[in-house]
């Protein structure tokens, strides 16, 4: 059996982290049951991303510097010209600091109709220091096809502030990005006829063949043989001679127990380890014999005797401790060990998160970890 290094200096570090992980795990006897609509999406039913470019006005001297942000200057001049204000001859004297060029983004949800309102996000595109207190002027929002689907306008809410003094400054949150609730008006709809569909594909957000089979079984048991599994992600729902809206509504409320593959996710940069409940390991022995050398310098001052001709001197003092790991232990994990047993065993050994990463990598390399190890 392979020997994998563990140091006793980590024996007490893992308690809080791993105990918290165990508490977050569901009890084995209580399997998670969820609604089908919470783990699936319907084909063609999705949101669309919108984007636009506009101007924010009314800033308190925190806007773009027109000498640096040429696009802000040209946009402002073009807008004023369209409004009947001609300043082309005096554009060199345009020095306002209350205007900022911004990028406006929004998500157009499915089944939105003309006149409905959506939320928009506004972000500075120039060198503006804050958008707090600004107002977005009418901005068309386009989709990937170049067509305008919404128009945005309104007062920004940044939930941030920034102030500066002669020697210090303070900033809370991000003052160069704001939000306008219901700030966009839908002008064009994305057509999707659900009521006349004779079939529909249902897609699992986490592809798994067992989960897809369970979903099909629950649907067919409740509504008849209308669901067919095509692959681990996709199910075909036959809607012939049925009301599609009512059928999909009933399907969405059905309960199913999803199955997740055994996986261990490791973020080596932060030392974070996430393990699924179905993780198993084969019989493996774990041990460590680190050599630790600790050198401590404690200089001391030597004073001469009273009325003597001696001089004060600094005398070095060095203390060296060597730990050869003679008190370290060998731990044996039996085959079929569950996540709870693995956590309890490593917890009793006092293994820290970062050392556990090395252990998991070594166990996976040995072939004893019966799970997918994903390093990030």
Q: Overview of this structure, please?
A:
The protein is α+β, with helices and mostly antiparallel strands and 376 residues long. It folds into three domains: 8-29 and 263-302 and 313-375, no CATH class; 34-44 and 193-256, Gyrase A, domain 2 (2-Layer Sandwich), CATH 3.30.1360; 48-186, no CATH class. It contains six helices and 25 strands. The protein has helices at 15-24, 70-82, 209-223, 244-253, 339-349, 353-366, and strands at 34-35, 40-42, 48-57, 100-108, 117-124, 135-142, 148-155, 161-164, 169-172, 177-186, 199-204, 227-229, 234-238, 255-256, 263-267, 272-275, 280-281, 284-287, 292-297, 300-302, 313-315, 318-323, 330-333, 369-370, 372-375. The strands form nine sheets. Strands 3-4-5-10-7-6 form a six-stranded antiparallel beta barrel. It has a four-stranded antiparallel β-sheet with strand order 2-11-13-12, covered by helices on one side. A three-stranded mixed β-sheet has the order 16-15-25, covered by helices on one side. The radius of gyration is 33 Å and the shape is flat. One of its GO terms (biological process) is bacterial-type flagellum-dependent cell motility.
Give the key terms:
single chain, 376 residues, 3 domains, six-stranded antiparallel β-barrel, four-stranded antiparallel sheet, 6 helices, disordered N terminus, signal
Strand order of the largest sheet: 3-4-5-10-7-6
The number of distinct structural domains comes to 3
By secondary-structure content and strand pairing, the structural class works out as: alpha+beta
Whole-angstrom Rg = 33 Å
Poorly predicted spans: 1-29
The mean pLDDT is 78
Proportion of residues in β-strands:
25-35%
Biggest beta sheet attributes: 6 strands, antiparallel, barrel
Distance between the termini: 28 Å
Shape: flat
**Strand elements, count:** 25
What share of residues is helical? 10-25%
User: How many DSSP helices?
Assistant: 6
């Amino acid at each position: 059996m392979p020997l994998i290094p563990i140091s006793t200096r980590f024996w007490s570090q893992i308690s809080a982290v791993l105990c918290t992980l165990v508490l977050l795990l569901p009890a084995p006897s209580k399997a998670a049951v969820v609604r089908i609509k919470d783990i699936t999406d319907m084909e063609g039913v999705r949101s669309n991303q919108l984007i636009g470019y506009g101007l924010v006005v009314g800033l308190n001297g925190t806007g773009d510097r027109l000498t640096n942000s040429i696009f802000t200057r040209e946009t402002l001049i073009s807008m004023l010209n369209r409004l009947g204000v001609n300043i082309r001859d005096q554009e060199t004297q345009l020095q306002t600091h209350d205007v900022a060029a911004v990028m406006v983004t929004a998500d157009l949800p499915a089944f939105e109709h003309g006149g409905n309102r959506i939320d928009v996000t506004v972000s500075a595109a120039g060198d503006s220091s804050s958008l707090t207190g600004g107002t977005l002027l009418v901005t068309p929002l386009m989709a990937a096809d170049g067509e305008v689907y919404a128009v945005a306008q309104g007062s920004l809410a940044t939930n941030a502030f920034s102030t500066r003094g002669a020697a210090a400054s303070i900033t809370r949150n991000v003052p160069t990005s704001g939000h306008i609730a219901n700030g966009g008006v839908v002008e064009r709809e994305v057509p999707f006829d659900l009521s006349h569909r004779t079939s529909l594909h249902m897609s699992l957000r986490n592809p798994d063949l067992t989960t897809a089979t369970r979903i099909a079984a629950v649907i067919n048991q409740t509504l008849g043989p209308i669901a067919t599994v095509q692959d681990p992600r996709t199910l075909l729902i036959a809607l012939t001679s049925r009301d599609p809206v009512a059928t999909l509504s009933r399907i969405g409320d059905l309960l199913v127990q999803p199955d997740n593959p055994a996986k261990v996710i490791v973020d080596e940069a932060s030392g974070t380890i996430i393990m699924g409940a179905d993780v198993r390991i084969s019989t493996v022995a774990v041990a460590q014999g680190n050599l630790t050398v600790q050198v401590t310098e404690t200089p001391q001052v030597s004073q001469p005797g009273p009325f003597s001709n001696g001089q004060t001197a600094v005398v070095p003092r060095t203390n060296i401790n060597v730990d050869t790991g003679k008190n370290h232990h060998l731990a044996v994990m039996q085959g079929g060990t569950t996540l709870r047993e693995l956590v309890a065993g490593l917890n009793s050994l006092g293994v820290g998160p970062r050392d556990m990463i090395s252990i998991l990598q070594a166990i996976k390399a040995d072939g004893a970890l019966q799970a997918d190890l994903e390093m990030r």
